[in-house]
Amino acid sequence: MIEVHQGPAWVDPARPAPARIYDYLLRGKHNFESDRAAAERIMSLVPEIRDCAWANRGFHQRAAKWIAERGIRQFIDIGSGLPTVGNTHEVVQFVNPACRVVYVDNDPMVAEHSQELLDDPDRTRVVQADLRQPGALLAHPDLRDLIDFSQPAGLLMTAVVHFVSDASNPWGLVARYMGELAPGSYLSLSHLTDDQKPPRSVAEFRRVFDHATAQMHFRSRPEVERLFDGLELVPPYGKGTAGWLCYAGDWGADDPGLADSDGSRWLYSGVARLP
Ligand SMILES: C[S@@+](CC[C@H](N)C(=O)[O-])C[C@H]1O[C@@H](n2cnc3c(N)ncnc32)[C@H](O)[C@@H]1O
């Protein structure tokens, strides 16, 4: 493990942050002691959480690739996280080098470390913005520069909406972002759930985020389904779940037997088309 001693001056290393906890779960090196302690606490409660993180990342990549294969050439990745293996622009530009990606995250460390992804500003930009402030996010000059809102786009919101409280109306926010996009655009979204999970583990898992930079809001299947209101869920879905959300590992899995894991079952996932 390479110890990261410093982030940008305004980052508080003593306060765990979702991006860095996730980075630790994915065995990255951009995390502090507070993040590792938080992740280790979650692992002690939910031993399959590392598998959950990988299942989510796999869904993120398969869905982005699938959307690019439908001919979409521009992507907005909200809650993009710290750079990792198989970043969004690498996945979609493998399908078509002309694909453009705007990474958006509210964590200043993500903005700083994502600079390393910016070897081609005509195809990749990084924006620091909070998804709970759609006006400011959508007006950001880097986003407006790279995304043509008259053409379909892919909106990727994986493992981020569970950091938005009911009071901030995640349903209205997703609808607002999709409402800005042209017909034929796609939404890819995954979300942690506490459905059929041990209540004590869920309560303690949530508590780990009480003093973090963002809090955790698990949601039930109907609550996650409502995020897709007005959109058409599209195949490949998961095995036996046609027309419904599925667990993260199942979506478009090559081997549905292997994909169905305890970790995967912490996340509902889906891809939908804007009619
Ligand atoms: C668990 S990571 C997911 C990373 C990536 N989307 C993936 O699925 O692999 C969640 C990310 O969402 C970001 N995030 C949390 N709340 C946010 C908000 N209100 N606005 C923008 N980003 C946010 C965090 O900083 C973190 O980088």
Fraction in helix = 25-40%
Beta-strand segment tally: 8
Q: How widely separated are the two ends?
A: 46 Å
Shape by Cα distribution: globular
Q: Order of helices and strands, N to C?
A: HHHEHEHEHHEHEHHEEHE
- Major sheet attributes: 8 strands, mixed
Our estimate of the beta-strand percent is: 5-15%
Bound molecule kinds, no repeats: S-adenosylmethionine
Backbone structural class = alpha/beta
CATH superfamily: Vaccinia Virus protein VP39
Total helical segments: 11
Q: What name does CATH use for the topology?
A: Rossmann fold
Describe the overall structure.
The protein is an alpha/beta fold and 275 residues long. It has a single domain, classed as Rossmann fold (3-Layer(aba) Sandwich). 36% of the residues lie in helices and 14% in strands. Strands 1, 2, 3, 4, 5, 6, 7 and 8 form an eight-stranded mixed beta sheet that branches. α4 links the parallel β1 and β2. α2 packs antiparallel against α9 and α3 runs parallel beside α4. The protein is globular, with a radius of gyration of 17 Å. It starts with 17 loop residues before the first helix and ends with a strand. The site of S-adenosylmethionine (SAM) has 21 residues, from α1 and α3. S-adenosylmethionine binds next to α1 and α3.
